[in-house]
Design goal:
Length: about 70
Amino acid sequence: MTTETKITVLTTLVKLAAEKEQLRDGAAPDALGTWTKRRNGWGYACSECSGIAPMQYRYCPHCGYEMNGGNKNE
């Protein structure tokens, strides 16, 4: 990978991270996501982005949404 390609990739990642931060900051402060256990029994799905995580984190690793809303399948 050339240096120019690396810089382009890094610049794109920084822009995406900034957009993600803006989206997360734009959420209502009292809005909390929830984890839903998947039907196949493996992992949990985020209520905001449907991203899959192996365990229930405080924040979704995919969209960064705060997940203190609990688990819908408890």
